[in-house]
Write a structure and sequence with these properties.
Elements (H helix, E strand, L loop, with lengths): L11 E7 L7 E2 L2 E2 H18 L3 E7 L3 E5 L7 H9 L11 H11 L4 E6 L4 H5 L2 H9 L3 E7 L2 H7 L5 H26 L3 E5 L1 H17 L4
Parallel strand pairs: 1-4, 1-6, 6-7, 7-8
Antiparallel strand pairs: 2-3, 4-5
Helix pairs in contact: 1-2, 1-8, 3-5, 6-7
């Protein structure tokens, strides 16, 4: 007799893309939302291949796009069509509304991935309360794009402007570290990576959760 093991199938995954003002900010040559869309597509493709159920919502103060109740080969074309015309809004996300949206659409334990920006304005808008509310029932990952220019600014010491820029960048990094610590205290997880690295980093975390039986 031989026992074989395989990851659980038919798990639930919900991806929420923040389409608020910070997602329009450019990191390198592209807006932040581009990395969020790439992450969503890769993660959804992996989940569909693994036999899990995926739903996606693009949200700021209203839902800008969604893909629900689609599986198998039809999922990726529908998802790509939903996200391709996505328009961003120069507003702060309504995080309490995001929490209500997640809770209304997920009746079983799921992995919820929030693709947003770790910023003080997000905390003021209720991101931490939303993580806490979702984490009571689901696994939560907050994923954010790192800006390589921030590290370059932190190293600046050439003149007075460079010193002020380095101080501002260091303060921003400290605020991000504090937000990360608080999210983890509330039961969520945080992933930050450069734009080209965010999608594989989130995909790896999803696979790790599957392999460890936490999803």
């Amino acid at each position: 007799m031989v026992k074989t093991y395989r990851p659980e199938r038919d798990r639930r995954l919900m991806v929420v893309l923040d389409t608020g003002r910070l997602s329009a900010a450019r990191v390198g040559d592209a807006p932040r939302i581009d990395a969020s869309i790439k992450t969503t597509l890769l993660l959804s493709a992996l989940a569909a291949k693994a036999g899990d159920r995926v739903q996606v919502s693009a949200f700021d103060r209203v839902e800008r796009a969604r893909a629900i109740g689609i599986s198998g080969p039809a999922m990726m074309p529908v998802l790509a069509d939903a996200l391709a015309p996505l328009e961003l809004a120069l507003v702060e996300p309504d995080w309490p509304a995001v929490a209500r949206l997640v809770q209304s659409r997920l009746s079983q334990r799921a992995l919820v991935v929030l693709l947003t920006t770790l910023d003080a304005s997000a905390v003021d808008g209720g991101l931490l309360d939303t993580v806490a509310a979702i984490a009571r029932t689901h696994a939560v990952v907050v994923a954010s794009v790192d800006d390589p220019e921030v590290k370059e600014l932190q190293a600046g010491r050439d003149d007075v402007y460079g010193l002020y820029a380095a101080g501002a960048a260091a303060r921003g990094a400290l605020e991000q570290d504090a937000i990360t610590m608080r999210v983890r205290e509330l039961g969520g997880d945080v992933l930050t990576a450069l734009p080209d690295d965010l999608a594989p980093a989130v995909a790896d975390r999803y696979l790790d959760l599957k392999a460890s039986g936490k999803l």
